[in-house]
Amino acid sequence: MDSIVVMTNGEISELGSYDELLSHNGSFAQFLKTYLTEETGSNLHNEDDPESNVRNHPRMNPIENQNYRKIQNYRKIFSISYYPCSRKRIHDEDKNPEMKNLKKDEEKLIEEEKSETGKVKLSVYIGYAKAIGSLPAVLIFVIYGFYQALNVYSSVWLEQWTDDQLLANRSLANTSIYQDKNEMYLGVYGALGVCQAIAVLTYALLASVRFVKAAGNIHYKMITNILRSPMSFFDTTPVGRIVNRFSRDVETVDNNLPQLFRSWINTVFNVASTLIVISYSTPYFLIVIIPLAFLYWLVQRFYIPTSRQLKRIESTTRSPIYSHFSETITGASSIRAYGVSRRFIEESQLKVDKNLVFYFAGIASNRWLGFRLEFLGSLIVLAAALFAVLSADDGIVGLSVSYALQVTGSLNWMVRMTSDLETNIVSVERMKEYSETASEVSIFFKRFTKFKKEIEHTNLFTGF
């Protein structure tokens, strides 16, 4: 290479040999500095020896080899003198693998979906109560509590009716006093039944309407926020995660959660009324309530966190199934063309198997709970029967034992419904997460008399 001609804006700006142009520090030298240092960042980790690079180009003649060595030397000079911070930064990354991993995580476009840990936050329950309505939520508990109180009092009234000494004397059966008192007991018992029917009907109607309204409110907040999300949200969020929330989680909030709430309210008031009746009938039963309550609390402490976290992981591992299925349907023609159908089938089976592992673990934990609750319920029946023997009143004994037989199922269902409620409320937690993601400015539709024929983009962000 004898001489180099440098053109700038259609005119010759420099003319000379390679060494002369570099020594002048003109346009040619500046061009080399800019070009060579741009490649420095990508070559710092695997910088080769200039001699080996020359040997890798057998077609170069001796003059080209000499010029190539000069370029490599200048590249090293420029990279050290003009970009010392790049070398230092990369050296720091090599010494600190955490910094390198953090950089890799920041460069990821789609992050792995993470599930919450620990107890469900109180804000999730408050949010669901607000979706139901603060006043209707309070009325639901008050009305059902009133119904349960009437139910308990009707049992006590029936016990007093059977133990009445006047009615036990059959010789007075034809007297007016006997008939009036019998009608009085019957009338009060019938009135209690009518009041119970009105209370439970009011509760059922109010709960059904408000639970449906709550599901609609939660769904509306989520879909409104999703539709107003920026483009970066859809670039970084797989479609399977969105479909999972709008399918399985919405189904849980629509169908499962209202039924679980009604069952939980029923079992809580049933257990409370049962313990009150047994304690009223046999006061000695209060002695065993404290240790049995501690055992029930211990069982709940082990079961509920395990079941809740299994539900979270099961929901999280379901999203990749939807994503993979959607991607497979979209690229079905390409998959068949390249003959990789078997690989996609196996990958889908692996994702389903991973999800079923946690689903099966949840079923196994339910069986673990059922065995222990049945055992504790049998202890309650035994204690109630033993203490009832000490009572001389036959009606009180029958009332205590009958409620003790009910408490086994009630306690079992209360623990199970409490755990199922906390497990399924995770769906509200997941929908609440997508209801609070960053969104664009709210869109308000207004009437305009004139429309401008232009489109204006303000603060538009997108990811690649």
Task: Describe it.
Pfam families: ABC_membrane. Residues 138-423 form the ABC transmembrane type-1 domain. Its main location: membrane. The protein has 464 residues and is mainly α. It has a two-stranded antiparallel sheet. 77% of the residues lie in helices and 2% in strands. The protein folds into two domains: 4-101, no CATH class; 122-435, Up-down Bundle (ABC transporter transmembrane region fold), CATH 1.20.1560. The longest helix has 52 residues, at 176-227. A hairpin with a 2-residue loop joins β1 and β2. The chain contains 18 helices and two strands.
Short summary of the structure?
The protein has 464 residues and is mainly alpha-helical. It is 77% helix and 2% strand.
**Form type:** elongated
pLDDT < 50 runs, ≥5 residues: 40-60, 77-91, 102-106, 444-449
State the name of the first-level CATH class of the largest domain.
Mainly Alpha
Q: What's the total helix number?
A: 18
Q: What share of residues is helical?
A: over 70%
- CATH homology superfamily of the largest domain: ABC transporter type 1, transmembrane domain
CATH topology of the largest domain: ABC transporter transmembrane region fold
What is the radius of gyration? 39 Å
> How would you classify the helix and strand content by structural class?
mainly alpha
* Strand adjacency order, main sheet: 1-2
| Major sheet details | 2 strands, antiparallel
Total strand count, please?
2
Instruction: Give the N-to-C terminal Cα separation.
Output: 43 Å
Number of domains: 2
- Element-by-element helix/strand order: EEHHHHHHHHHHHHHHHHHH
- Tell me what the CATH architecture of the largest domain is: Up-down Bundle
Overall average pLDDT: 76
Q: What multimeric state do the chains show?
A: single chain
What fraction of residues sit in β-strands?
Answer: under 5%
